[in-house]
Structures are given as C-alpha cells and as structure tokens.
TrEMBL record:
Transmembrane segments: 50-70
Domain of life: Eukaryota
Keywords: Membrane, Transmembrane, Transmembrane helix
UniProt name for this protein: Tetratricopeptide repeat protein
Chain residue ranges for the region called Disordered: 261-285
C-alpha cells in the first residue's frame, strides 16, 4: 500500500458508480508514503512470499494516490474503468460470506484476486491505452508478482525504462523484487538511481532506508550508517511553518535505531525533537 507528499489535491473523481462503492479520499493520498513504510516494516524478515506481496501491495497503494492526483488528464470512461479494476485489486480476501446485502467483492485467495485484477486491468489497457493504459499495465505487473513472478519481473523491467510516475514506481517495485531474490547489487543500482531523481514520487527517506538496509546486508556498514544518519538528522532538525519541531516519521525513527546499533556515538549527535505542550510551552524549557 512519509512526510513527503507533493501530490496536489484535486476534486473528487467523476464516476457513475454509487458514491458508497468508491471512497477515494485526499486523506488517503496524504498517508500513502506512511503506509508504504509501515507495511514494509511490519513484514520485514518474514520470508520471500510476504516480501513479494509487499512489492505488489505497498507500491499499488502509492499508484492509487497518483491515479487520483492525475485523473483529470483522462476521460471519464477510462477513469471509471481503472477505478473499478482498482476496487477489485483491493477487494477483501476471506473464506467467510459477506454480510447480507453487501455489494462489495471478495475472493477466497490472494491468487484468485490477483487473477481477476489482472483480467480487469488488461481490459482497461486494451480499450483505452495512453496514460491510463500505462497505469493499467503497471497494476498488471504488480498483481502478477504473486501469480507468475518471472513474467511480472520482465514486465516491470520494461515499464521501468519509461518516464513519468509509472516508470518510477516500476523501478521501485523492481528494486524490491531484486532484493527479495537476493540480487542485491542490482537492487542497489536501482535504488541509487531513484535517490538521484529530483521527484521520485516515493519519499526519498524510504528509498534511502531501503538502500541502507541492503548495504548493511552486504557488510558496507559505514555507508549504511551514513544513510541512516542523514535520514534521522534531517528529520530531527525539520521544523513546521511555525518553527516548531516535527515528530520523527516512522522511517526516521527506524533509521536512528539502525544507526544506534551500527554507530552509537554518531547516533548521539542527532538531537531529539522537543515536543510542544498543548499551551505552546516548550517541555525542554
């Protein structure tokens, strides 16, 4: 399915569907990168199968936000078709019957949901093409990760050669897949390319944190520590519009913890953000 959110708030997506069926909200968009971090951390170390799912689900959430931000560039019919396919890809997986009268979709397995999603996204790509078609192809690839991994990786490699948000997000998903496959050098190269971008869509803290984790696995502890330090220090020194300290993001806290384990003395040089009392009085005074 972050602290960095450049997407511009847009009017609600035009749709012919009943309002209760689709509930895209700007609040969701503003939390996309945070959810990406949290899902990655929650499943860390739990095996390749879950990591493969993260590559699909976490990045899928990011593109949903981007889809909403840029939806005015596509015609209403294409928007509606892509939106319905997205609903399918987000449908509940359960072997329990849904409540009586529910119009929501559900699937018994992740595989069934992925296959149904791929079919719907393929129909969108075939019918509309263009910008919406490219987004549909991306969704096809990330959903295919749990169905036919080799084919999905090949598709992501092709999409990653493109420009724009789809190309960028394809690179991120590809880097995750390479990491899960143990192809760490390839993953490092992709993450480094993403980190150099002026607007990589995904928060640079997330990109650099993932890169640092790989470098740490490769035994390049000094390089990893530098990345963790930069993430944590920048976050610790950040201020809001009123000059008040901003609470550390999940990624920044994790980075500081990682740095503490690698280089405790260096970690001590990072100041702790001072919380503000409700009255505006500084607890540190």
């Amino acid at each position: 399915m972050a602290r960095k959110k450049r997407l511009v708030e847009q009017p609600a997506l035009p749709t012919n569907e009943p309002k209760e069926k689709v509930a895209y909200q700007d609040a969701f968009q503003s939390n996309v990168n945070r959810r990406l971090e949290e899902s990655s951390k929650a499943f860390e170390g739990k095996g390749k199968t879950i990591l493969y799912a993260i590559a699909a689900i976490a990045v899928l959430a990011v593109l949903i936000g981007i889809f909403m931000s840029y939806n005015r560039r596509s015609n209403a019919a294409a928007q509606t078709a892509l939106g319905k396919a997205i609903e399918t890809s987000q449908a509940q997986v359960t072997d329990q019957p849904l409540p009586a009268g529910s119009t929501m979709k559900s699937f018994k397995t992740e595989k069934e949901r992925a296959e149904a999603s791929i079919a719907e996204f393929q129909a969108v790509a075939d019918k509309f093409g263009g910008d919406v078609g490219e987004k549909a192809k991306y969704f096809i690839a990330v959903n295919r990760l749990s169905v036919d991994r080799p084919a999905a990786v090949t598709e992501l490699e092709g999409l990653a050669k493109g420009s724009g948000e789809v190309g960028t997000l394809s690179k991120f998903a590809l880097a995750q897949a390479k990491t899960s496959d143990g192809k760490l050098d390839e993953a490092v190269t992709i993450y480094q390319d993403l980190a150099k971008m002026s607007d990589p869509i995904i928060a640079k803290d997330t990109i650099n944190f993932n890169l640092a984790q790989i470098l740490e696995k490769q035994g390049k502890k000094a390089e990893a520590a530098d990345l963790y330090y930069n993430i944590a220090k920048t976050a610790a020194e950040a201020k809001d519009a009123d000059g008040k300290a901003i609470p550390l993001s999940l990624t920044a806290r994790e980075a500081k913890d990682k740095l503490t384990a690698l280089d405790p003395e260096k970690a001590k040089t990072i100041p702790e953000p001072t919380p503000e009392a409700p009255s505006g009085l500084n607890f540190g005074q």
